Amino acid sequence: MLNTHPRRWSAVLGLALVASAIGGLAAAAPSFTGDPTTLDWYVGDNATVADPARSDVPLRLYDADGAVVTSGTVAAGLPAFAAADGAVRADDTHATLFVHAAQSGTAAGAWPGVQATGTDRFSGPGAVTVPAPLAGHPVVSTAGGYGLADVVQDFSSSGQGSFGGVYELRLRTSAASKGVSDRYASAYVKVTGADWAVVAGPEAGVEPAATHTTGTAPATSSYGKAFTVRATVTGVSAAGGTVAVKTGATTLATKALDADGIIDIPIGALALAPGTHALTVAFSGTADAAASQGALSVKVVAARSTTTGRLAAVKIKRTKAPKITAQVTAPGVPAAAFTGSFTVYDGSKAIKKVALTAANGGRLTITLPKRKAGTHRIKVVFSGNAKVAASTSPTYKLVVT
């Protein structure tokens, strides 16, 4: 490709390509005269006014093997190639793909759009390599171009009316000697939720019903403990679509919506670190129900831990150093999360402090300083960390003789 940067055009520039250069080729002069904003094809109702630049040549999408593709997911982007069934303009050698947002009540010539790919040579020396079924067709590679996810994001507030989710793919051809043709081959795709499909055209239909999404969850949970978000979507009349629970741009969990519009979505025990989290509950929408989202807040506290100790011997001579094996645990928390320190006390006095690393798995055998003859009260204190709270072991009796 000679140009890999998407370029957004106003309606007039999208048709005429005035004073622009695509793929290093000079732009074609417009084939109309006068002020376009006074012409029917620019200001008229789309239902009655056709775009004079739209040719009768169909445009199709193909995979890397040259098979026609008519549907896919928005996240995966467009298939490998877009190709016209025949010549858009005689003797042209290059092709470029544009995407325009269909708008009901607005002439197609005024639909806003973007340049979706660079410009590929499809004829002559240096032509782009294509599968055998596409040989000789005006074709452009869509790899690395402007995807449908970008289109949906850019035109989400463009006011498509009853043509919501419908986009027109326009392939224009060009030649070094003639610039870019204002005529184009055309195809329509409709985006519904996370999917897209080729459609015959932007026929006005029933607007998806408005929905309202809310979410509830426990006000407080703890690290290492799973919890449930209950999502309620009103305005839906049948099962379909999904509900995702997100924190920022990160999706924690997704579940298909039931027909009654209420689902419980489990959130993993380790999905959120301790802290207060603003969560979004987002319904994807369907052909009959519009997308919507709600918000909630969940506070996650550090996991409650339990520390224990086991003396190697409960009675020893004063000439020997006592040993104690300390261990800290917490429900649902992996062993590597127990970092910090163990401090061993004899009564109220700290007599030994050791570091606890992820590699220790929450367990250490600690050699203590030699003790004087008598009875000693030994306990272990775990320091805690950001994910696991501090805790103290029971007191253990050590007799030194």
From TrEMBL:
Highest taxon listed in the record's lineage? Bacteria
Domain Bacterial Ig-like per the UniProt entry, residue ranges: 216-300, 320-401
Signal peptide positions on this chain: 1-28
Does Signal appear among the keywords?
Answer: yes
Keywords from the named record: Signal
Q: Name one Pfam family in it.
A: Big_3_5
User: What InterPro entries would the database entry show?
Assistant: Big_3_5 (IPR032109), Ig-like_fold (IPR013783)
| Identification of the protein by name | Ig-like domain-containing protein
Identify the species of origin.
Nocardioides ginsengisoli
